[in-house]
Amino acid sequence: MTAAEQAVALAMDELDVWNGVREAVHTNQYPDARLRTRLLRERDPVLLRRVGRLLDRPELVGDDLRPIRVSALAPFTIGSFTDLLRAYLVGAGLAPTLQVAQYGSFDLALATGEFPAHQPDLVVLLLDESVFLPTVWSPADVDDLTEQVQRRLDDFCSAVTTSAADATASVVLHTVPLPAEVRDSFIAARDRAVVAGCWHRLNATLLDLSRRHPRVLAVDLVGALADTPFAVRDDRLHRYGDLPYSDGALSCLAREVRRVAQASAGSSRKVLALDLDNTLWGGVVGEVGAEGVTLGGLYPGNAYRQVQRAAQRLREQGVVLVLTSKNDTAVATDAMMSHPEMLLRPDAFSYRAVNWSSKAENLRAAAAHLGLSTAATVFLDDSPFERGQVSGSLPEVAVLPADGDPARLVRTLLEPGWFDTLDLTETDRRRPELYRGRAERSTFSTGFGSSQDYLRALGIHLAVEPANRYTAARVAQLAARTNQFNLTGVRFDQPATTAMAADPGYLVAACAVTDRFGDEGVVGAVWVCRGAPTWEVLNLVLSCRVLGRGVELAIVGWLVRQARLAGAAAVEGRYTPTAKNGAARDFWTRAGFTAVTAELYRLDLRGADDPTPDWISTEEPQQHG
Q1: Is 228 exposed, middle or buried (0-12, 13-18, 19+ CB in 10 A)?
Q2: Mean pLDDT across the chain, nearest whole number?
Q3: Is 63 a residue whose pLDDT tops 80?
Q4: What's phi and psi for 504, nearest 5 deg?
Q5: Is pLDDT at 559 greater than 90 in this prediction?
Q6: Cβ count within 10 A of residue 607
């Protein structure tokens, strides 16, 4: 495809996105899943701004979008930032409510910690050089300037951490570009280097706040801008309207904030489904044989090998790989096993579908096998036909093109941040092996007289322990990501979970499962208010991959024993219906609780039976706190 043809195709694609969003809004609906994934890949700030403005309507509905509230504060005019952010948040499957603090209120809000009043989930602090540079400075005294910058940076960090400590929202900030007019004011080369080094240290300090404070999240705008074709600043708009960032730079920042919001809301993807021919290697293996495919060495073979390396790195961080290829199984397997440059051998994939079925059927089968929704899948394929067929049948799947220049494949796969998470837990790292164990359990399940016989043969063991600094991140991740078995829909984040775990008035427990096929890791969590005489379960969540084994009943059994040891008279729990938690509707009654209201259930501990299934073993109950 020539450059002119690519430009025409891009313009037509953007027109399709605009028309699709406009038609959805006309019916008071958010764009459908297919349109949202296309929107998430969009990079044109003009189109994004128009789409974001169009989506600024409180009457829009979409049952599969998760609400999120975001406030923005800045010491300058933020221009199109909220429109750009709104477009990207909707693209990520979020229904945003955005609020911008009054112009001129930045310093006061930061000093008092009084962020906008609509109880946001995220507070975004937009920064420019004015936050850290003194109003008056001289390039003739570079040491004085760097000292002043350091003092202002220290004051800023102190204000942020103090405000974040008292906030219920997460605070998102970003690195700040050093304006050319500041750098170029120094005519001495060594002084320019000193100022640049000072600014690099400033940005490193801002990034380090993410590590030092659980409620602060920093994104690297400076690094992201290096990969964009946009100028950071329009000098005229800066002087005329106190607007230090161009639409292109603001769209880059909005994209980075969206990645944080998506991870915070638990809306990231878990599965990467990959084709083989002209995706993981060049050529069609059925035609050229294993020795004829293009892989490794010089371009384009090195580009395909880098795609495999990128997928391998995602797998090391917990992304589950699925193989779906229209090929003869023996031929494809031989190439994967024998080619010396192949990085992804067959055992790298938790599910393999090398056959002549439709890709949509294979993706459905993979999702069912893994116990995940197809909405958790990203699909990379070179065939426009296959991509179109999957988009038409499974619009919730994020479909990525692998045709065109293979040198761009890694960027296509990684740039949108489909798989982002706030923290990488041990369970994340082990996820591919956990799903491999699921396949072994499925094979093992045949030949038993009853499901109870099968479950007893699994040798399931439940370990429940109070959450600690090592498991709090995983517990919070479960709260954010779990939809099907989430009793109340309340999503306690990591700072809230950590605070409750340290409070003797609460019990936060992490629930891990093992069986004959291995360790499933932390798959469940429960948050409890330990009142007297009644313990109140604030929420209980369980990963869908262990549903159907009675683990949720064993968790309640453990909790009942803990409550008895503490002298409680009763345990109460709630079930609040959501769009996706119907699987948990009868849970409390199955656990022996009695309905008090439509949502409240109660268990009198005097004479109550232990609901733990006889095929699950647990530790002896221990008194904590």
Answers
A1: middle
A2: 90
A3: no
A4: -65, -15
A5: yes
A6: 5
